[in-house]
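Hey, can you fold this?
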Amino acid sequence: MAELLSYEHVDISYGESVVIHEACFSLAEGEILGIVGESGSGKSTVLKAAMNLLGRDGLVTRGDIWYRGRNLPDLPVEEQRNIYGPELAMIFQNAGSSFCPIRRVGVQLQEMMAAHGCRDRESVEEKAMDILGKFGFDAPKRILDSYPFELSGGMQQRVGVAAAMLLRPRVLLADEPTSALDVTVQKQVIEEMLLARKLFGTAILLVTHNMGVLRAMADKMLVLHRGETVEYGRTVEVMAHPKSDYTQRLLAAVPRLRR
């Protein structure tokens, strides 16, 4: 598989504090890479660096983040605009906060598509209804005509995944997309993301605390501890034979039902 996204010896800092040290990994076409670790280990920071969402104080201070031969942190703003959305998209832990609560979902999707050159309202609505239908929504038109507050948290999250896929990005960055959901909706969101890979060949970079989600989705996994990589490899191999003490403790902390 061709390599899409790669981090090469990346350090990320906030002010004078280095929070990510020597991050090295790659994501191939159609591949799912899961990033795990305890809270504060730097998982979300790794994703935000690729999307230029580190804020005023955050900075990639060393190394390169390559996307199809282009170093993302060095790109001019206009070129970033052409990549973020159409080629790299991101969904957050609470997708509902990405929507304006007092404007209908369909109107916001129209504006998002117009910002990337898709101004034919009928065509955009048709695409939106098509992808909502593919993702299992029984009444796509009702979803588009709804205000975000009229949808449940789980429904908002699922609509967020569908919205991110409207432009058919090659890479989807998902930051804890299931952690605030109940088990039933978690399953639906996981199925949506796996369907996105099946339908569009989308590669996914997934941050999660949930080892069950990781086991169900990820081809490879990266374990972070205090900003440093302690384990990286195929999910089945790392989970069956963890090499680092930290990974062993992390896996041992997962609750197990006993009969």
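Oh, and this one too while you're at it.
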Amino acid sequence: MATLPLPANPFPGMNPYLERPDIWPEVRNRIIVGLADALTPRLQPDYAVRVQQRVYIDTEPGTFGGAQSRIPDTMILADGTVALRPEIAAAEPKPGASAVAVALPATELLRQRYLQVLRADNMEVIAVIEVLSPSNKSGADRRDYLTKRTEIERSTAHLVEIDLLRAGPPMPVIGDAPPGCYRIIVANGRLRPHADLYAFGLRAAIPEFTLPLAKGAAGVSVNLNAVLSHVYSHGSYNMFINYGQDPEPPLSEDDRAWLDELLREQELRAGQGE
């Protein structure tokens, strides 16, 4: 069987079709692993790059939101009796009452990956790299993510926060943010509360940024655009994308016209009258 060339990302930077809810979780995981693979040979032997994960409970599977803490409905007391939470006990049917058929809400575990850069000599966390998911930006998981973000800000670790999703409110910053539907925030732990914010749109390549390292060490540049291009080429996403349709969420009229022309030039969308 002949080897065909891998498909290239038709966009100069972020591909908005990759934001589709059924595609993005895999894209996000591939980006995280791709960043780890790109950084490891440049950081060894002084640093190690580890893929870590947090686990949340999603009470609305498939919606990328609704992560909640685990509060049990029943407790075993010291004397061996079983007690219900007060609000559950109040709703319990009294003796003699007829039962009503109900269904329990579905739950799903959300496993969200992120990167840690560790010093090889003492395993100190030097930097944390986050790639945001839809649940990070909205719903109960946003609150949990912002709590984790605050914990990092209160430590000495650097934070890199990558937002390649147009849907949902952006993460809070103080100051006037430049226009752009996508963002990268680089918060050097030695310069807090100041941080660098890179804002960009569909028509530009994803900007390179510098990952800070330990005090006295020069940072390393990160080419996220190259990582995304590799993810697109090796993920066969062209097989699952219909470029004849517009991406969601909707684009501005100017961006929609630009996207339409770009896709027609690359013969990924039929021209008018065809």
